[in-house]
UniProtKB/TrEMBL annotation:
Species of provenance: Thauera linaloolentis (strain DSM 12138 / JCM 21573 / CCUG 41526 / CIP 105981 / IAM 15112 / NBRC 102519 / 47Lol)
InterPro entries listed in its UniProt record: CcoP_N, CcoP_N_sf, Cyt_c-like_dom, Cyt_c-like_dom_sf, Cyt_c_oxidase_cbb3_su3, Cytochrome_c_Oxidase_Subunit
Chief location category: membrane
Keyword Transmembrane: yes
Stated name of the protein: Cbb3-type cytochrome c oxidase subunit
Length: 296
């Protein structure tokens, strides 16, 4: 089981740990000098005019202690397991595995009952929603909030505004495969003044206070650069996850400063994929739960 969304940090930690251990071994080996027969030479450093030091190898017992720590690190790494799930049958992960198997046995039949029901019917079922809610609190709330109300950059799932679409199939596809919303930066294209003009035009679209002169100038910049994704009428494009800019619902915020930041630097936003991790049955229940939130 991956604890990170991408495999990058796993690799980062593994490489770092391996390099550290190899470095320790290298340092030890390069300091392993044999004690030579005959008189021991001096080190060459002299303190306080007469105080010199024999060039003796490091004491054996001292070296052994270091070797033991390295041995310990390798054994620990293998048992922990520090190199991913090849060792998943050991340690904590095996406990997780058996618990999952027990849960599967217990809840499997309950899931099966909902599996074959239409998702809209499941959405209307209180017991299914209670299960959906528990799963939502476990897997989704850290980003979307415990009441699914969202936060800056995390969409509110309780309203009727959707980036990608709010019909059952689309929501299921979102949860299963994840989503990546990408808006390219326009700072270099438009320049600071141009960005400010377009930002005022964007604010005018939803009836927010704006500088009308700037908005007028910004209209052209919008038509040239933005309609490809946000649509000619700026109501968004669910195929790209481009939001509607004409309503009161904002992913990042409606202040001029925030809109300027969005336009200047662009935005990249990711909803992780849950299909493989949760399996179809749980995704089915979660889809129903999300539907139940917005259909009130
Ligand atoms: C790591 C944070 C994170 C987690 C965890 C997460 N989401 Fe999301 N989710 C996002 C982000 C970010 C987006 C917006 C993606 C975009 O900008 O296109 C999103 C978008 C969505 C959407 C689409 C909303 C729309 O307007 O089209 C749905 C539905 C959704 N999430 C449901 C869920 C469910 C159900 C779970 C739990 C299984 C979940 N999310 C877990 C971050 C997360
Ligand atoms: C490549 C497609 C694309 C283009 C071109 C594009 N956008 Fe976007 N825009 C998006 C996407 C996708 C998002 C949502 C980003 C996310 O999911 O976090 C977005 C988000 C935004 C937001 C944030 C809305 C909110 O609810 O907070 C604003 C404002 C915005 N765009 C304005 C513009 C303007 C103005 C232009 C032209 C200068 C533009 N966009 C060009 C795709 C695009």
């Amino acid at each position: 089981m991956a604890d990170f969304i991408s495999g990058f940090w796993n690799m980062y930690v593994m490489v770092l740990v391996t390099l550290s251990i190899l470095f320790c071994v290298f340092v030890l080996v390069s300091n392993m000098t044999k004690r030579e027969k005959g008189p021991v030479e001096l080190h060459g450093h002299v303190w306080d005019e007469t105080l010199a030091e024999y060039n003796n190898p490091l004491p054996r017992w001292w070296m052994y202690l270091f070797w033991i720590t390295i041995f310990f690190a390798i054994v620990y790494l293998a048992i922990y397991p520090g190199f991913g799930d090849k060792n998943a049958h050991r340690g904590q992960l095996s406990q997780y595995g058996t618990e999952m198997a027990q849960a599967e046995e217990k809840y499997g039949p309950i899931f099966a009952k909902y599996r074959d029901m239409d998702v809209l019917a499941v959405a209307a079922d209180p017991e299914a929603n209670a299960m959906g809610k528990r799963m939502f609190l476990t897997y989704c709330a850290q980003c979307h909030g415990s009441a699914a109300q969202g936060a800056k950059s995390f969409p509110n799932l309780t309203d009727d505004e959707w980036l990608w679409g709010g019909d059952p199939e689309t929501i299921k596809a979102t949860i299963t495969g994840g989503r990546m919303g990408v808006m390219t930066p326009f700072g270099p294209v438009l320049g600071a003044e141009g960005v400010k003009d377009v930002a005022n035009y964007v604010r005018s679209l939803s009836g927010l206070a704006h500088d009308s002169l700037r908005a007028q100038r910004g209209k052209e910049g919008f038509e040239t650069n933005c309609v490809a994704c946000h649509g000619a009428d700026a109501t968004g494009n669910p195929l790209l996850g481009a939001p509607n800019l004409t309503n009161k619902s904002w992913l990042y915020g409606s202040s001029e400063a925030t809109i300027i930041e969005t336009i200047t630097h662009g935005r990249t936003n990711q909803m992780p994929a849950f299909g493989e991790f949760l399996g179809e049955d749980k995704v089915h229940l979660l889809t129903a739960y999300v539907l139940s939130l917005s259909k009130k």
